[in-house]
Amino acid sequence: MPHPLRSVAVFCGSRFGADPAHAQAARALGTGLARQGVKLVYGGGGVGLMGEVANAALAAGGEVHGIIPDFLLSAERPPPGGLTAMEVVPSMHVRKTRMFELSDGFIALSGGLGTLDELVEILTWRQLGLHDKPVLALDIAGWAQPFVALVEAMITQGFVGESGRRLFQVAADVPACLELLRHAPLPDTSAPASRL
Ligand code: AMP
Predict the structure, then answer these.
(1) pLDDT tens across 149-174, in order?
(2) What dotted CATH number matches 7-184?
(3) Ligand 1: centre distance to CA 114 (Å)
(4) pTM of the full predicted structure?
């Protein structure tokens, strides 16, 4: 049966992180998406976990669409063998908008402030009703726990409604993440993305 989602954006670190479990998960995720026929949309870099997920997806015969701002080309060095599609865009904001437009769902794999920014922005767009595409956070080596705790604290303090918990799901590992993705409710494509 074909996968219900045609393409998924993966937000992840431009570094590897201290625990090798992060890179292992990145490779497993790239391979898993490719094997299920899901196009990988990502930031276009060849460094850190970004490179791991993209190269694994390509090696497994998957489609990989990168979107990179021109000023980051030298720092985030796209994979030298190329991707199946690559867009060079003028800014970070255009990058995030294009990643949003091209993707039916989102996965936050481990990463730093850039990954956090991308995760939070896609959640705030969902909170505002601008989309209802599934958002998953992968909890590799406890990476997602402080974020989950922060959201819980904001709910307790009355800054986020109880529905904030339903904006995203947490997966303990890559197989669980792929399983959640396969069964995620289909996004409503009539959502008013033009208001972004
Ligand atoms: P990091 O998690 O900090 O390693 O960053 C992961 C990716 O997010 C890198 O490709 C960064 O260039 C990217 N990034 C960082 N800040 C932003 C931002 N404000 N908007 C879009 N992408 C960003």
Answers:
(1) 999 999 999 999 999 999 999 999 99
(2) 3.40.50.450
(3) 3
(4) 0.94
